[in-house]
Write a structure and sequence with these properties.
The protein has 149 residues and is an alpha+beta fold. It contains three helices and four strands. The protein has one domain (12-37, 53-143). It has helices spanning 15-30, 76-83, 135-143, and strands spanning 88-92, 95-101, 105-114, 117-127. Strands 1-2-3-4 form a four-stranded antiparallel sheet, with helices on one face.
């Protein structure tokens, strides 16, 4: 029997439950997202510039966001206040790439300058291993890390 056709009786997760979880994560990602690519093709000067992104709601210091989509448009200081310092930061041209890492998941952010601040233009959470982890659970884990962890 193909693994894709397997069900709970053979010890594999129920496909319907897995698809429901995927859809919940997908819907959470769409919250507060304008639907526009943060780097539209053909931007002025031949270089892609991030689209203006307005945050859906302000992040509260010490409180992890409910979805990855709610990070779009947030300032770097607001993200650090909610999630702490990233474990890795890299500058690439005008952008900064931040990585948050926990036991079960990782969060990637790309920030671009907007005026005098860096704003999150792209964010994605992913499982760190083979276990399934929802965005909400990932953000909760990352937000509960002790400072400097």
């Amino acid at each position: 029997m193909l693994a894709a056709c397997a069900g709970p009786a053979d010890g594999l997760p129920d496909r319907g439950a897995v698809l429901d979880e995927v859809m919940r994560n997908y819907r959470a990602s769409l919250i507060a997202v304008s639907g526009e690519n943060p780097l539209p093709a053909g931007a002025a000067g031949g270089k892609a510039e991030p689209a203006a992104v307005q945050p859906a709601m302000a992040l509260r210091p010490g409180v992890p966001p409910a979805s990855v989509a709610s990070l779009r448009g947030q300032t770097g200081p607001a993200v650090r206040a909610a999630l702490g310092q990233p474990v890795f930061r890299r500058v690439e041209g005008p952008a900064e790439i931040w990585l948050y890492s926990g036991q079960r998941c990782q969060l990637d952010l790309i920030l671009y300058p907007s005026g005098r601040e860096m704003l999150v233009a792209w964010a994605a959470a992913r499982a760190a291993g083979t276990d399934r982890v929802t965005e909400e659970a990932c953000l909760r884990e990352l937000g509960s890390r002790p400072p400097g962890a």
